Amino acid sequence: METPIRSRETLSLTLFSLLFFICKSSPLHHLLISNAERRIDLSSHIVKVYLTLKIENAGSTPASEVLLAFPPAQVDHLATVEALATKGKRKKTTLVHLEVKPTELPDAPNDAKYFTIYLASPLNSGESTTLEVLYMLTHSLEPFPAEIAQSESQLVFYRDNALILLPYHVRQQTTFIKTPSNKVESFTRVEPTNRAGTEIKYGPYEDRPPYSFSPILVHFENNSPFAVVEELVREVEISHWGNLQVTEQYTLVHAGARHKGVFSRVDYQSRPSLNGVSSFRYLLARLPPRVHSVYYRDEIGNISSSHLRTDSRKSELEIEPRYPLFGGWKATFVIGYGLPLQDFLFESSNDKRYLNFTFGCPLLETVVDKLTFKVVLPEGSKDPSAVVPFPVEQHLETKYSYLDVVGRTVVVLEKKNVVPVHNTHFQVYYTFKPIFMLAEPMMLASAFFLFFVACVAYLHIDLSIRK
Ligand SMILES: *[C@@H]1O[C@H](CO)[C@@H](O)[C@H](O)[C@H]1NC(C)=O
Ligand SMILES: *[C@@H]1O[C@H](CO)[C@@H](O)[C@H](O)[C@H]1NC(C)=O
Prior knowledge:
Blueprint: H1 2-7, H2 13-25, E1 31-41, E2 47-57, E3 63-70, H3 72-75, E4 78-87, E5 94-103, E6 113-123, E7 128-137, E8 142-143, E9 147-149, E10 155-161, E11 169-178, E12 184-187, E13 193-196, E14 199-208, E15 215-221, E16 227-239, E17 243-254, E18 258-260, H4 265-270, E19 283-287, E20 292-297, E21 306-310, E22 315-319, E23 330-340, E24 345-347, E25 353-358, E26 367-376, E27 382-387, E28 393-399, E29 408-418, E30 425-431, H5 439-466
Bound molecules: 2-acetamido-2-deoxy-beta-D-glucopyranose (2 copies).
One 2-acetamido-2-deoxy-beta-D-glucopyranose binds near residues 295, 301 and 302.
């Protein structure tokens, strides 16, 4: 904003004061970061970044918003951005969640994309506060080499900025990058840079202007399972007769370096740690406690190699596809289970019923490119509405199953780029008249009655023909 003002001296007074007003009111110009620390965790295929920002209001007016900037290439892979503020003094501090929203700003340098953090209370002139920010990136580790043989370890590239991209002046900052093992092939140096064990330290850097950028590339070993569910369709069907039936259809892919050459099962089975380090064989699904009638099948049929462990808080289902997954290989399968309805269906104060269930994917440390969550309400349900703690696309569908007259309303929720932090509770509210509970038995009774009448009629006709 300042450069155009400086370069054109003949601006009229009105335009000048207008620009001055914008500068004053925008959250950009009177904040500065006195200290920033960033920790980038590269130990799995989901990149987790923790930022601690000490923010100071150097302006004369109170500030209520703080901006975060991301390069456009990162924004496309951004799965979540969360911000927390510490509240209270010294010993009695608690963390409070702050609202974070994507924001469009004109004239963003290098097409930077913004998120605004809304502070719980305005930061007065001269005051400072500390914010904790967590964001996660998916599909941000590029396998290099892109193809590896069965016995090879997987190496990946991670690209970022040695400096924290911020629209503010940063007095002092440090970045720590954690790699999964000691095996780091190379990393860009931006002095001071140090590596010790599984940690690379960039900084401390002093007094960097807004939007400072210094690209870095880290090349390292990462054999964690690159488990990506390209598509997951979860369907939860509510039956007021006491059961919740869950069906989950997975299209799973190993998104790491592609497998090259032939696969030797003999080598794999004799020494899986040497012959197939980059592959994965087992997946762990965390299901609610009290699951029953669990099945796991693929297009061929039931797969018996799954183990279910349950305790009072959770159930864990260990599943094993028919073959280990190497880079680029896919597996499609279905998991189904039943749950007791009273654990998930409740009555709200306004005479509505609601389902309280977990969003996201039950498989641990997995990215879901596209998740479709369908909640099938009982026949006769009205006014459905969903409450989800993050933006999702919503629409309604109708599903027919046997004995249905008008069909069942299905609330469909869709979200792209889902990571484990999205495994949070959400609710679907609806109204239901208990009289509809009688619809199914009535249908059954009338079906039996009609069948009975038909039999009687048939017997009568049959007899009359024989005569
Ligand atoms: C598959 O497993 C389910 C549940 O265990 C069982 O009811 C069904 O009969 C099995 N089907 C086959 C083809 O084995
Ligand atoms: C949903 O269930 C969770 C876990 O049992 C609970 O913490 C939360 O308060 C419930 N939400 C509602 C709206 O009932």
